Amino acid sequence: MALVIFCAVFGVAGATCISINILSLVAIKLGAGNIYLGLLAASVTAPLVLGIFSMKAIEKYGKLKVLIPWTAASTLLVTLYLVIPHIAKNYRPVIVLACLFSIQILINICGSIGNTAWFPLLQDTTPVRLTGRFFARLRTSWQFASVITVISIAIFLGKSSAWWKFEIIFAAAFVLLLIRFILLLFISEKPPQPHHISQQSIIGRFKEVFKIKQLRYCIIYLGCYSFLAAAPEPFKIKMLKQLHYSSGFILAATSMFGVGAILSLRFWGKLADRFGNRAIFSISHIGMIVTTILWLVIDDNIFSKTMVFILYFSFGIFHSGNGIAQTRYVLHSVPDSKQNYINIINFTTFAFISIAPIITGLLLAVTKNLNFSSGAVNLNNYHVMFIVIGALFVVPHILRRNLRVGKEKSTSNVVAFVVRPLRNIFGPFKRINKK
What we know:
Elements: H1 2-17, H2 20-29, H3 34-45, H4 55-61, H5 64-77, H6 84-90, H7 93-115, H8 118-125, H9 131-157, H10 163-184, H11 202-210, H12 213-230, H13 233-242, H14 247-275, H15 278-293, H16 302-333, H17 340-366, E1 371-374, E2 377-380, H18 381-392, H19 394-399, H20 411-418, H21 420-426
Antiparallel strand pairs: 1-2
Helix pairs in contact: 1-9, 1-10, 2-3, 2-13, 3-7, 3-17, 5-7, 5-10, 6-10, 9-14, 9-16, 12-16, 12-17, 14-16, 15-16, 15-18, 15-20
């Protein structure tokens, strides 16, 4: 369990150096538009679907024999990023953007084929009774690593984003991911079980999962929620750039996502293990609706600069809570003998995440001239995007009803438990739970 956490910490720190936030800043520096940003964001998750081709190998040869060689390949490919600053000095931006996209695709193809083994490996590691607590600890650890990395990069970039600075960031990514690979060599797994090898085709495996009512509802919910959560992300950065925020400021603001997750994950984990997933789903949906729609107030002023930090912080809190509930539901619904069910659920979710920024980018490109003014109200295409996405979070909120597991506490009871310390201080002025 300790090795898994250390591996995740170095892996996430390295991945943060070549994350979509960093690459979006590189792309915007080269003059990329919304459609390219959508495609670039999709290139992070779309290749993860290719992991379906390594499912049988995991059952036959074991998780580590798949994870280790493909992780080695993806780590070595990270060195290709080092040529981007040199190409940018000598070639047209369109050529550099094409190279950036191609490198991202190659790295993620190799990484995704190997990462098919990661969640089954986590299931081997995690005791059922400690699922919420362990994943809270795991996510807190790698979120902390992500925050430290993002803040360091933000300070390093500052108001200037010279190419030599990006070159150093890409070199740091390779070193951190190399350490992650070395740590992988020391992780153990449950031996592969020959009688668990499925003879079904890839399509047959998907059909098998979708026939199970509990998992079918789970896939529909995860696809819907993940689509909405991913849809606006790269375009927040684009909007902030258009409002003349510096690269350092934007990265410092995005680090608040990790801070929110760090401060709340332990709380979400304990709450989930004690009361179940239902209330966490409900609370996180409401939080995501409010957090998304509040982006309407962002402009180029001091108030907005504070609000950007607050919105990323609250996004981290509610999204991490939903993630804990998702993980508990999936791991408790999938038997040890059918670990590839987890991968099929993840592949479907990745497909929705990949489609989301492409659709959003196309819509923003089509509506780039949209501008509505009436009195104090002034809306552009980014504002419409936030309104639509915020309103659509009502859909996963309705779908959550199909994810009940046993007798879980109602949301009102959980809220009453959470605010009990405040009620003890200020007095029971209002009853918020049922008698």
